[in-house]
């Protein structure tokens, strides 16, 4: 079966926004993945955290919010907003330059680092992208968006084992962030040739997102290939 490998299906561009509440909410914004964008409701009454914190949404809602204390002055906030607008129109170089100013003022804040990493990836500057993603993961271990982006970066570099470790760590921390599950399955299937790993994560993703028909086709394809391997083993190698 011909497979179109898409790094981030439904994620043509990913922007993290600083939502100024009592603290700060970092949300992964991505089309067609509603659980990745938790609405910032009921957060305004909560006290500002002293450090990064992660909270799963309750009351039947899937997703999470990552709150980070923000110590940005007015100019830095304006720079961040302007940077996001630049990234949205493809001005990655200018956007990254503004984000570097924000990062210099708040190096522990993950949102500008992840956005900068995305800009550097599109600018074919993977070293700078990796630097920012590693810093984001140091600030919040297992950060789901940073882990997903870092896994993709490592996979593109052919560092498949490292990519798997990053995906698995973030997925263990945030199993409800579905892109991690899907991209780990693709990595295991097409790059590591670990079919049992691929099947487990395709099926987990499909159970969580039953409307994704493409993944159902991939599971059927995988089952077919697994059956061919089993038949080949039973009949012995072809002469």
Number of strands: 4
What global shape is seen?
globular
The rounded distance between the terminal residues' Cα atoms is: 26 Å
- Rg from alpha-carbon coordinates: 19 Å
Protein traits:
239 residues; alpha+beta; globular; 4-stranded antiparallel beta sheet; disordered N terminus
Concise structural overview:
This protein has 239 residues and is α+β, with helices and mostly antiparallel strands. The chain has nine helices and four strands; from the N terminus they run E-E-E-E-H-H-H-H-H-H-H-H-H.
Descriptive overview:
- The structure is a single chain.
- The protein has a four-stranded antiparallel β-sheet with strand order 1-2-4-3.
- A hairpin with a 7-residue loop joins β3 and β4 (64-67).
- The protein is of the alpha+beta class and 239 residues long.
- The protein is built from nine helices and four strands.
- The protein is 56% helix and 8% strand.
- The protein has helices at residues 74-88, 92-105, 110-122, 126-139, 144-156, 160-173, 178-191, 195-208, 213-235, and strands at 15-20, 24-29, 53-56, 64-67.
- The radius of gyration is 19 Å and the shape is globular.
